[in-house]
Design a protein that fits this description.
Helix content: 40-55%
CATH superfamily of the largest domain: Butyryl-CoA Dehydrogenase, subunit A, domain 3
Largest sheet: 8 strands, mixed
Radius of gyration: 21 Å
Number of strands: 8
């Protein structure tokens, strides 16, 4: 096992807490895979050590941690178990959205005087919201509600409708999209989480059927303005989300390389030298290490620059947003390549269960299927860097 990730400045106790919890998280990983959702022990440990509130505003009892800290913590938990890291980041950023962007009455009800409140949900606009007195009438069905089985509130994004037609935002020309939030008991969990990787995330399908959602429990998806918290929340929901995806990928990729290094020290096929003494393996291992470490520095640099901009009182530029998304997608791609190299080099050692390396391989390749790290990120970033991007590009 490698030491924990290099400590970024200002990490405080959060990375220590993540490192201390890693053995428990790893011990619970097989059970989470079997039951297709995190164990109660893992969730309770996140709450007890404050990790679930890593991105929550300080005024609501959260850490409001900077991006270096968030990424390092997601990385350390994901290194122990990809599903746990994924659920931690999904719950942390979902709770941050609710806390920073929703109305005062909603935030008081959800957070004040309460601890351990976790949110979940998918922000793809797969529902419909029609305005009515005091709020919206909402219907829809969503997928990938990671962590919804242990969350108190569930969110979903909707097309805002009027007279059966989508409303169009005048400036951007895009449909108006609204994020809505309801207590879990008003959501129907539909199951349907039988997958190759990230099995322990409990990313179940769910539905909202003809529910009234008060306006206070909503915010605009593409134009969210923070109503509480510091500069961190001015980076917006896409940058906050990207930090979680980057930390997940880097952590699971690191674990894959740790595992193959350990396996290679004792693996010897008939008539061959030890794997770790073979020049071709050494070359490929060094390349994977260089790429993963380089991707990590790109991630920290891109997110660090974004946070420094908003801390100085400036708005994020389109280029800074593009670089954050580019760094996140690149880190995911590099980590998946590292896991693929490690899995293939391990031979049957990674084929038979139980195998941490096999789980890392499966989890990373499941993570690559998320739309947030789709290859379109590369073309969007290229258009920005080449100066040919459209005037409104949702990054």
């Amino acid at each position: 096992m490698s030491p924990p990730p290099t400590r970024p400045a200002g990490c405080g106790d959060l990375l220590d807490a993540a490192h201390a919890l890693a053995p428990l998280v790893e011990a619970e990983a097989d059970t989470a895979d079997e039951q297709c959702t995190l164990t109660r022990r893992t969730v309770d440990a996140f709450v007890e050590r404050g990790l679930h509130a890593i991105a929550l505003p300080r005024e609501l009892g959260g850490a409001e941690a900077d991006f270096d800290t968030q990424i390092a913590v997601y990385e350390e938990i994901s290194r122990a178990d990809g599903s746990a890291g994924w659920c931690l980041m999904a719950g942390a950023v979902s709770s941050a959205f609710a806390a920073a962007y929703m109305g005062d009455a909603a935030v008081r009800e959800m957070f004040e005087g309460r601890t351990g409140i976790i949110h979940a949900g998918q922000l793809a606009p797969r529902g419909m919201a029609e305005r009515e007195a005091g709020g919206y009438r909402v219907n829809g069905q969503w997928s990938f509600g990671s962590g919804c089985a242990h969350s108190a509130y569930i969110m979903g994004s909707c097309m805002e409708m009027a007279g059966g037609q989508p409303l169009i935002h005048e400036a951007s020309g895009l449909p108006e999209m609204l994020v809505v939030c309801l207590p879990r008991e008003k959501i129907e969990l539909l199951g349907n989480w039988d997958v190759m990787g990230l099995r322990g995330t409990g990313s179940f399908d769910y539905a909202i059927a003809d529910q009234h959602v008060p306006a206070e429990y909503t915010f605009p998806l593409l134009r969210a303005e923070p109503r509480r918290g510091g500069p961190l929340y001015r980076t917006g929901i896409f940058v906050l989300t990207a930090a979680g995806h980057a930390g997940f990928a880097l952590g699971v990729g690191r674990r894959a390389l740790d595992e193959i290094r350990s396996i290679a020290a004792g693996k010897q096929r008939l008539g061959s030298a030890l794997l770790n003494s073979q020049p071709t393996f050494q070359r490929d291992f060094a390349r994977a290490e260089a790429r993963l470490r380089s991707a990590r520095f790109f991630v920290l640099d891109a997110f660090g620059q974004a946070l420094r901009l908003v801390e100085a009182g400036d708005d994020l530029t389109l280029e800074s947003r593009a670089l954050v998304r580019l760094a996140t997608t690149h880190a995911t791609e590099v980590a998946a390549q590292a896991a693929r190299f490690a899995y293939q080099a391990a031979g049957s050692d990674a084929l038979r269960n139980p195998s941490v390396l096999q789980r890392a391989f499966r989890d990373l390749h499941a993570g690559t299927q998320h739309i947030f790290v789709d290859d379109k990120t590369y073309t969007d970033a290229a258009q920005v860097l080449l100066g040919i991007a459209p005037s409104f590009l949702p990054l």
